[in-house]
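Revision sheet: structure tokens.
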Amino acid sequence: MPLPSVPLLEPESSMEPESSTPPSSLWDQIFEFTAKARDAYKRRPIPYWILLILGIVAMLVAFPASSILSRVYYDNGGQSKWIISWVSVAGWPLTALILFPTYFVQRISPTPLSLKLALSYIFLGFLSAADNLMYAYAYAYLPASTASLVASSSLVFSALFGYLLVKNQINASIINSIVVITAGLTIIALDSSSDRYPGISDSQYIMGYVWDILGSALHGLIFALSELVFVNLVGRRSFIVVLEQQVMVSLFAFAFTTVGVLLSRDFQGMTSEANNFKGGRAAYYLVIIWGAITFQLGVLGATAVVFLASTVLAGVLNAVRTPITSIAAVILLHDPMSGFKILSLLITVWGFGSFIYGSSMGEKSS
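Predicted:
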């Protein structure tokens, strides 16, 4: 969620004013950066760095693992879109287990739950359930590497909805990132014949692509609406408030998705799926359990990085995990990687970099 953060390298007022003359050599620049990093390290306690490293690892490992596991489910005989969308929110108690002890440690009370705030959480939970279902359809019909690249368009929609609803700033770098990422998506669409799995029809591939785009658009809308909830209903943003919203929204998304699974009778179908799963029943349930755990760990890691470091660092990690997911899918799942897909990947990373630069400039100006 787009939240305010504490900069990783904070300027010290007691330091001598910086010279207007830039360092004379590359070694001077390296020495200056090393000195700042050393000062930042000394100003923070060891537990801070441990938690930050755990958050970074969670983002770079758990999120790609969750995407790979979704594709493993379909590759080995899984059929249900509702089950995979349910797995995405089934791990919500992990966040609750972190939230509740925090009240006692910091000796604060939970945020009062007004009617408007409760209705907002219910609405966001419904949207999250719909979003997870759209992504489930995407991973059912697209290779994990392709689905990951297409899902990166959520950054574009986050910027657009943030501008329209929350009045966030958009500068030239962010506009450039929108154009560049859109170009990357166009390249993927034009190269659709090279990475389609056997048994996936033209209409299924197109629907997977469309659902991925729609899911990314809804994801961007959820980001903007979450920001509005913080601004208009909560009135403050802190680590505990973010955890509260994560728990409540995930709880309602879990409830909506569970109703969908029950109505579609997919819970009853899990026994048949497990029996026919290529790796056996144990492998089937391991994919389900670890899918729920990894997704929730990724969410917790992203929340920790935003508050312990900065939104810019979280953006960098989001940019890095896109190629990690694509490369992991090629290695582990033997996804096809054509020249056009490699070009799309490079263009997407360029777009991420432009967005991160524009966002950092916006933070500095504000």
